[in-house]
């Protein structure tokens, strides 16, 4: 069985929350990516929503941009199953006004 675990996200900004670790008392930070996500369902069609994505510490230095995000299933402290971001793969933007199909069929300059 092959499950799709990659999704397109557009990170437009970040919010940082400072807190103290309950066990050690050490100051820590949680970084939330402000994301635009496009989803499509048969009954609602295409929808664009904005939400927050918890960034793992290994990805705290990620800049804003378009990414293919990889997730894995995780069990939280409340025993609820959710997803956890594991990797971000940058998506190169297409030149303004051109699609991949247009770029491949456009005549080449002499």
Description:
- By secondary structure, the chain is mainly beta.
- A hairpin with a 3-residue loop joins strand 2 and strand 3.
- The C terminus is likely disordered.
Instruction: Work out the helicity level.
Output: under 10%
Q: Please state the structural category.
A: mainly beta
Contiguous uncertain segments of 5+ residues:
99-110
Order of helices and strands: EEEEEH
- Please indicate the percent range of residues in DSSP E strands (runs of 2 or more): over 45%
Helices and strands, with pairings:
Elements: E1 6-20, E2 27-41, E3 45-55, E4 65-75, E5 81-90, H1 100-105
Antiparallel strand pairs: 1-2, 1-4, 2-3, 4-5
Key words describing this protein structure:
5-stranded antiparallel sheet; 5% helix; single chain; mainly beta; disordered C terminus; 110 residues
Concise overview:
This protein is mainly β. It has one helix at residues 100-105, and strands spanning 6-20, 27-41, 45-55, 65-75, 81-90. The protein starts with 5 loop residues before the first strand and ends in a 5-residue tail after the last helix.
């Amino acid at each position: 069985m092959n499950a799709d675990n990659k999704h397109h996200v557009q990170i437009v900004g970040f919010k940082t929350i400072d807190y103290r670790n309950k066990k050690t008392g050490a100051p820590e930070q949680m970084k939330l990516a402000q994301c635009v996500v496009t989803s499509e369902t048969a009954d609602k069609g295409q929808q664009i929503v904005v939400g927050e994505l918890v960034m793992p510490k290994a990805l705290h230095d990620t800049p804003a941009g378009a990414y293919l995000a990889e997730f894995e299933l995780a069990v939280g402290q409340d025993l609820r199953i959710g997803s956890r971001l594991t990797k971000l793969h940058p998506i190169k933007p297409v030149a303004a006004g051109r699609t991949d199909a247009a770029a491949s069929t456009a005549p080449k300059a002499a």
